[in-house]
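pinging the channel bc i need a second pair of eyes. not urgent but kinda urgent?? the chain im working w is below, pasted from the shared doc
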Amino acid sequence: MTAYEIISKKRDGFELNAEEISFMINGYAEGQIPDYQMSAWLMAVFLRGMNAQETMAVTKNMLYSGEVVNLEKIPGLKVDKHSTGGVGDKVSIILAPVVAAAGVPVPMISGRGLGHTGGTLDKLESIPGFRVDYSIAEYTDKISRLGTCLIGQTPDICPADKKMYALRDVTATIQSIPLITGSIMSKKLAEGIDALVLDVKTGRGAFMQNYEDSVALAKQLISVGEQFGKPTAAYITNMDEPLGNTVGNWLEIVECIDGLQGKGPEDLMEVTHQLCGAMIYLGKKAETIEEGIRISKEMISSGKAWQKFLEIVAEQNGDVDMVQHPQKYPQAQFSAEVKAKQNGYVKSIHSLEVGLTAVTLGAGRQKADDIIDPKAGIVLHKKAGSSVKEGEILMTVYTDKEEVLTSAVERLGRAVTYTGRQPHVQPLILEFLDKNSL
């Protein structure tokens, strides 16, 4: 068996067996297969696809390339949520304390920003002092005491995936359903979960912009989760425009603080409560998802979720005073306004354009080693369906880079379309899928 033979077999459209997939993934993880051969194999997979058996083999080999966390000593069913990523998607930061406050342990290993989408870790690290680099032993201890812990991928978790992901990012092979499935599910299964809820984004700001592709990905993720004996459910949610009213790391933390105090924007809280409700149900703290949603709302209204968030910030070395008094946070040096070009209604706001503009302001990375500016970002004052008058403020941009202000404002202006009559606004939650949908 050689890498050459396996690459050519997949290039020609044939199914690979479990041994061949293991040879490639483990050989690459151990440094025996070079980048150029793995790149060729990834492109062959991207172009030719994989069936369910191949996808399962990819997931298993990524999963068992490192440590699988054992949380059996912690009482209760451990449930996590994974989002495929979107612009303004800050749900995890509200969701973890809500679900933990409801009595369901939430083990959460999160990622950094990728392309035009923000990362949970980058947002959390905008809180001064907040640590996400704990060992597996520390992570397990915090979950047992607090009910949740939010960390980054450790060197011991799915090292094969970490190495392959970096290569996929620079070889245009990110958007492959089998490779995405293996990457997501290996990390989620490694963190010690008993069940999983997925938020699969679709639309212009999502990695899967095509609805059918999003459904196919969701079904593949559910299938793998169920084969591992982990109840898995998925929501297909709309990412045509940003979620919530802020894009940018500290700006999104402030919006999460508002959400945890019962003042969050309607769209963000709708998605959050739906996902929390499903997690609380899978964690057997509710008889139905609807009851789970009621419990989720109660965790906010009672103040229990906000209290849990403050405990998380303190436990992970974050500045609790800054979270309690966000007005103390340093301000961006420069700001500018995007104004409506005509009277009428906002028909749409192109979320991909908003996300890419936020990156140029300093809120994301253009290269892996870029330093993120936590203050940079965009506040949306109007969303799709809002009535506007010419000259009214649609968005405010914040940055320390004065040279990008003018181009950012122009680009955001072009991202907005108008209509003379009240538009029909697409629902946020488009479909629910579980094992019965396969």
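so The chain has a mean pLDDT of 95. and The chain has three domains: 3-49, 79-324+431-437, 331-419. — does that match what u expected or am i reading it wrong
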